[in-house]
Amino acid sequence: MENIHKTAIIEDGAVIADDVIIGAYSIIGPKVTIGSGTTIASHCVIEGKTTIGKNNTIFSHAALGTIPQDLKFAGEDVELIIGDNNKIREFTLFNPGTKGGGAVTKIGNGNLFMGYTHVAHDCIIGDNCIFANVATLAGHVEVEDNVVVGGLSAIHQFCKLGTQSMIGGGSIVVQDIPPFCNTEGNRATIRGLNLTGLRRRLDNRADIDEIKKAYRKLFESGNPLNDSAKELIENSTNEYVIKLAQFIANTKRGIPFTRK
After folding, report:
1. Is 64 a residue whose pLDDT tops 80?
2. 222 burial class (0-12, 13-18, 19+ CB within 10 angstroms)?
3. Residue tagged active-site, from 35, 97, 139, 150
4. What's the rounded Cα separation, in Å, for the pair 128 and 86?
5. pLDDT one-digit tens code per residue, 111-124
6. Per the confidence metrics, is the pTM higher than 0.85?
7. Active site residue 122
8. Which of 6, 30, 173, 246 has the fewest other C-beta atoms within 10 Å?
């Protein structure tokens, strides 16, 4: 095929759409499936049971589907699933799942993974997220839609990042980050609402006002956080406020904030 460089190695069993472009010296393993419109630059390694959707752009020296960096891994049948329209930049590393974590690492659509981003085993990532250079996700991390993770930030295993949250550069995140919140520091704490993100994505300013009120009740009232969350769940009719409160009520690792 003219769109596959003559030095690329495509192992028997790989399923590749006719229009996929594969650059020089890239290696595609026998259990890999690659969807239409995807471009793979030179010197990439894609192996394991890896499924890549449509219209992804994978840059040079990415390593996708290599075995988990988990000492318990013993060669089980695990997989990596990548959706559509993602940009995966140079020297990124994505690992598949593990038997103990559900056996799947899953990435949604429209995400940008900048250089040296690491997505470890059993991570679940939504849509339209941005991971700046050297963003590092440990195992079992869950990232909801429209999250931004700043450069050189590390997310502890089993943490959850709520939708439209933003993690400042150089942060060390060891607890769950609620939707719509800005977080930064080592150890990272909530610094306020991600108002820029909210204004970009919510057309109804009344919704933003309701989120502001909920934030003040949760984090600035001085009342117990769980009590405030429960009250909002019971009394609010705003979908975004309820989402924020439910996230807090369901947290397993706790919420990092300093009581004023």
Report:
1. yes
2. exposed
3. 139
4. 9
5. 999 999 999 999 99
6. yes
7. yes
8. 6
